[in-house]
Specification:
The chain is an alpha/beta fold and 494 residues long. It has helices spanning 71-77, 89-100, 123-129, 149-154, 168-176, 182-197, 213-221, 238-244, 299-311, 323-336, 350-359, 367-380, 391-396, 414-423, 440-445, 472-476; strands at residues 2-9, 20-26, 29-37, 50-54, 59-62, 64-69, 81-82, 107-112, 135-139, 144-147, 164-166, 201-206, 228-233, 259-267, 316-320, 340-344, 361-365, 401-403, 460-463, 480-485, 488-492. The chain has two domains: 65-70 and 185-451, TIM Barrel (Alpha-Beta Barrel), CATH 3.20.20.140; 88-176, Diaminopimelate Epimerase, Chain A, domain 1 (Roll), CATH 3.10.310. The longest helix has 16 residues, at 182-197.
């Protein structure tokens, strides 16, 4: 099967600015690239064995990947109570009260960030707004959940001092909420996959908790074929994956090559806004055992788990946000002697940046988090934000970046991540630590797994604006005209 894309443009200069190209795709692989020149479009004689699509001078780039998602949760959160941008606990309560007039049954919300609020979350605030159904409101970082009294009782936490559950208690609720039937959930996931394809996404790394292999196999078998999916496992399913014979990179049968085994995930510490990210220095105003945050997994256990996974052919991915958690994770990679990824890598000790490169550890980062967290970081990590989200320093050290969203913590839209990495701002304010901005090409490279070259898989994205010369506003709202996955159209507005 042959597909020819005519009159495409290559972004940027690189000696080819303005050049038109034709890209020939054979059986899902780029088999030839013809340079037409800059004088104008041409029309090819139709190939009776295939199809020709005229891109009309639009820009052609590799298809984009989101290297860190919780895809099912993102799909569900798109339909739940949106609490992004709320400025106080009382404003949250007002939104809950308004939602209660149109919703019956359990209420789930997501997106509040309360680390700088004057009034802390408390179950009584939610009780005043809604006391007759269970209310679960997840923070924007996904590491805490705020419950009303009815929900606390239902979850075995009656008598809790404030109704705010963090880390493992939060994750347990996150994993167990089932307010949609399997059929409704698969429909919601399908809609989210289509939405991702419309933004140029060809693949995701899914860190959803649970044993999600059968879920994705069923979805793909039922026609959800818009994305390549790399699914991952947590500690509770590591032995199951090993006993099943799964290794990182394995293609799962009966999924048309769209589903692969990914990595082994460990959440080693917490998050900034919950003040549980494990740091070298204490948080302002905190004393006692968790003044520096929370280390969820002891070091010896982390090394043991990573060694077990690595020796079985499964690559470790370690969640680490605080600088001390990143040091611990790098120490563990060095002791085990394996490569892998550190997910987030938000606050780093300067001496650890080169260690990423020396150890072959990929920094899997979410640039939109830098914009979400800049105000909180300036307060909670005061005096250390010069080494917060240090993308340019990582690249200068030779570290490989993989960019993602951590959806639903940030929207699953790679253009938001690209814009934040390139400009370090998303509003009228000056860039936050502009010395850590990276070039647009580097951001695109960190968002893709293929290149526009002969022999590469034809995962491609067509955009209307040159991304190498776009403003931050243009990047954030980048018009995507088409997405091709293995030469197959997954989205088109052409």
């Amino acid at each position: 099967m042959q597909l020819t894309l005519t009159n495409a443009r290559i972004p940027g200069e690189r000696g080819l600015m303005g050049s038109l190209i034709n890209v020939i795709i054979t059986d899902g692989i780029i088999s030839d690239i013809e340079f037409v020149g800059a004088t104008g479009a041409i029309t090819l004689e139709p190939d009776l064995s295939g199809e020709t699509i005229d891109l009309g001078g639009r820009f052609l780039i590799p298809g984009l990947w989101d290297a860190h998602t919780h895809f099912t949760s993102w799909s569900m959160m798109r339909k739940r109570l949106n609490l992004e941008g709320v400025e106080s606990a009382r404003e949250v309560a007002q939104r809950v009260k308004e939602r209660r007039t149109t919703q019956t049954g359990t209420m789930v919300g997501f997106g509040w960030r309360g680390s700088l609020w004057e009034e802390a979350p408390h179950f009584s605030i939610l009780d005043d707004a809604c006391s007759d159904v269970e209310v679960y409101l997840f923070s924007g970082d996904g590491h805490s959940v705020w419950l009303n009294s009815l929900a606390l009782e239902a979850r075995g936490h009656a008598g809790h001092p404030n109704g705010l559950l963090v880390e493992d208690d939060c994750f347990a609720i996150w994993s167990s909420l089932g307010d949609l039937s399997p059929e409704e959930l698969d429909k919601t996931v399908l809609e989210a996959a289509q939405a991702a394809a419309s933004r140029g996404v060809v693949g995701i790394v899914d860190f959803e908790m649970g044993w999600i292999l059968p879920d994705w196999r069923r979805r793909i078998g039922n026609g959800n074929d818009y994305l390549q999916v790399q699914f991952n496992v947590y500690t509770e399913h590591l032995e199951r994956a090993i006993e099943t014979g799964l290794r990182t990179g394995d293609i799962i049968a009966s999924t048309e090559g769209l589903l692969r085994m990914g990595n082994f995930k460990v959440i080693s510490d917490g998050s900034l806004n919950t003040r549980t990210a494990f740091c070298h220095d204490p948080y302002p105003g905190l004393t006692g055992k968790h003044a520096r945050g929370m280390l969820n997994v002891p070091y010896d256990q982390l090394v043991s788990l990573m060694g077990r996974a690595s020796s079985s052919g499964i690559t470790p991915s370690i969640h680490a946000i605080g600088d001390d958690a990143n040091t611990f994770a790098l120490n563990a990679f060095e002791e085990v002697g394996c490569e892998g990824t550190i997910e987030h890598a938000q606050l780093l000790a300067w001496e650890d940046i080169q260690r990423f490169a020396d150890l072959g550890v990929i920094a899997s980062v979410q640039p939109e988090h830098a914009m979400d967290d800049r105000d909180a970081a300036d307060v909670l990590w005061a005096g250390r934000t010069d080494r917060c989200f240090p993308f340019a320093s990582l690249l200068d050290a030779g570290v490989q970046l993989a960019m993602g969203s951590d959806a639903p913590v940030a929207p699953l839209d790679p253009w938001l991540a690209i814009a934040s990495a390139v400009e370090r701002t998303r509003d009228e304010r000056a860039p936050w630590h502009p010395e850590q901005r990276i070039e647009p090409q580097a951001a695109l490279d960190a968002s893709a797994r293929t290149r526009l070259a002969v022999g590469q898989r034809a995962d491609l994205c067509v955009v209307d604006i040159d991304p190498l010369y776009a403003s931050v506003e243009e990047l954030r709202s980048m018009p995507v005209s088409a997405t091709f996955m293995g030469g197959r159209v997954t989205y088109s507005s052409l």
